[in-house]
Amino acid sequence: MNELRELYQEVILDHGRNPRNFRRIEDADGEAKGDNPLCGDRVHVFVKLNGAGGLGDVAFQGRGCAISTASASMMTELLKGRSEAEARRLFDVFHAVCTDEAFDPLDVPEEFGDEADRLQVMAGVRQFPMRVKCATLPWHTFAAALDGKATATTE
Amino acid sequence: MSPDSTPTLRPNYDVLAIRRDFPILAREVFGKPLVYLDTGASAQKPRQVIRAMTQVMEETYSNVHRGVHFLSQACTDQFEAARETVARFINAPEADEIVWTRGATEALNLVAATWGRANVGPGDRIVISTLEHHSNIVPWQLLRDETGAELAVIPVDDAGEVDLDAYAALLDDGRAKLVSVTHVSNSIGTVLPIGQMARMAHEKGALFMVDGCQAAPHMPVDVQELGVDFYCFSGHKTYGPTGIGALWGRKALLDAMPPYQGGGEMIAHVTFEKSTFKAAPHKFEAGTPAIVEAVGLGAALDYIEAVGRDAILAHETDVAEYARERLAAVPGVRIVGHARERGAIVSFTMDRAHPHDIGTIIDRAGVAVRAGHHCAFPVMERFDVGATARASFGLYNMKSEVDRLVEALDEVAEIFGR
């Protein structure tokens, strides 16, 4: 039961129930749809750049489980105001949180110290290999939106 | 039937004795006794099947229909005996009308690729239903795109029953060449009125094919009484191995159909100028077949027959109806699909928890259900759910396992709120 409680922490349940930035961005500079063919979950990520080439706004819509919805919601909060390069490095940190048993928040570059602490709540998925894709789908979709691809998939 | 296929059975359906035939049911998952409620995705295997497959490999194995030696004959006899078992199992008139396939998916693709290409053209119509598994949708889409035919879909009502008036309208102008529908919906359990639908199709000149994956392991199937033209099912859902399935077709249809794949086994004579083909079913079976798996499937069907198909239907219905009743009483649970005729499948959602989260949480209590779209996206769309959790029952399930499922859902409510 402990592993379940670690997966479904209050922060995740809260983001799952009340996702932040759950909306379209009509004049988005980039957007992509991601789907997980395994479970049918879908996420649509929108990116709006600011004048300086950074991420002015990031939002999403879609239908998915608590893990994927919470992951998308937290992602939009963490990415706002970042440069593109920072956003990609943050994706790497997130990926390590979700998949690397040896991941230690202390090893994260100082620039992401606070973010790594916040992302640490997703570490529970490591005990549920079938659910890692739920957590990473929004980030893959965000990366596809940055790269100008229309779609992302977990397959 | 071989003595090895005889299940240890008592007259009053001794489910505990049946469970002892399935070694995997004795295992634990996360320290809890396994509750396997995912038979609709794939059924567990009884010792009788495992033994039959081992016996072939240890004692009689060789290639079939090729050698003059002792083993080739012995193995061919077993392989062809399994074909006869399949014919008996669905009451096909002749064993030569049974084509081995890798599963129901390949059977559907085979009919689309051979009968379809030879008989379907621009303006013709193929009719399926909203309830189909993707394997009974995509082969017809491919055929449609290749031939210029039209693919039409019979709608279902809110209970999940097919709309027979809309079906009649799709047949009315006589353009429908083939109707291909599932016998039992894999996602919400609806049993379709196959006999009536086949008569309606024939009156308007269309052939009728049935995907019997969820029916063959669950209820008596008699293709002659149903009056259909093609019927198929998968081995692994009927307590047999993966990689094997069967297609039945009326002899005249099979004889007139072009071959499927080319290769050995299916030819009568080959020169570089031209090849001639064997008669059905062999002309559809290029290459060395799944010999061990075919024998395993034969043993699985013998096992089902020995337990008794009426008895299985009665038992599974009892357990599944109990599950509907108990699940409906859980706060926040919504059961998807309320057809009057239904199989041993219960699909549901919970107000606050996504089916994936339900699946993960109850898995830790040892309860295995399917969570997702069940390879039936159109059904999910029709009932406006992204996914459902699905409990599907087999001949070995018990009401006490339904209780374990309901208890496990309490933990879901605990985490996600009531």
Can you summarize this structure?
Chain A has helices at 2-7, 10-17, 66-79, 84-99, 113-119, 132-146; strands spanning 30-36, 41-49, 55-63, 151-153.
Can you give a write-up of this model?
The complex is a heterodimer of chains A (155) and B (418). Chain A has a single domain, classed as Sufe protein. Chain: A. The radius of gyration of chain A is 14 Å and the shape is globular. Chain A has a four-stranded mixed β-sheet with strand order 3-2-1-4. In chain A, 45% of the residues are buried. Chain A is of the alpha+beta class and 155 residues long. In chain A, α2 crosses α3 and α3 (66-79) runs parallel beside α6. Chain A has helices spanning 2-7, 10-17, 66-79, 84-99, 113-119, 132-146, and strands at 30-36, 41-49, 55-63, 151-153. Chain B has 418 residues and is α/β, with parallel strands linked by helices. Chain B folds into two domains: 52-305, Aspartate Aminotransferase, domain 2; 308-416, Alpha-Beta Complex (Aspartate Aminotransferase, domain 1), CATH 3.90.1150.10. In chain B, the strands form five sheets. Chain B has a seven-stranded mixed β-sheet with strand order 4-10-9-8-7-5-6, with helices on both faces. In chain B, β13 and β14 form a beta hairpin. In chain B, α2 (47-60) runs antiparallel to α10 (291-307) and α4 (104-119) packs parallel to α5. Chains A and B meet through α1 of A and α12 and α14 of B.
Q: What's the number of structural domains of chain B? A: 2
Largest interface: A-B, 22 and 19 residues
Give me the secondary-structure category of chain B: alpha/beta
Instruction: Give the mean pLDDT of chain A.
Output: 89
Provide the fold topology.
The complex is a heterodimer of chains A (155) and B (418).
Chain A: H1 2-7, H2 10-17, E1 30-36, E2 41-49, E3 55-63, H3 66-79, H4 84-99, H5 113-119, H6 132-146, E4 151-153
Parallel strand pairs in A: 1-4
Antiparallel strand pairs in A: 1-2, 2-3
Chain B: H1 15-20, E1 28-29, E2 32-33, E3 35-36, H2 47-60, H3 70-89, E4 98-101, H4 104-119, E5 125-129, H5 138-147, E6 150-154, H6 164-172, E7 176-182, H7 194-203, E8 207-211, H8 223-226, E9 230-234, E10 245-249, H9 251-256, E11 267-270, E12 275-277, H10 291-307, H11 309-328, E13 333-336, E14 345-350, H12 355-363, E15 367-368, E16 370-372, H13 377-382, E17 388-392, H14 399-416
Parallel strand pairs in B: 3-15, 5-6, 5-7, 7-8, 8-9
Antiparallel strand pairs in B: 1-2, 4-10, 9-10, 11-12, 13-14, 14-17, 16-17
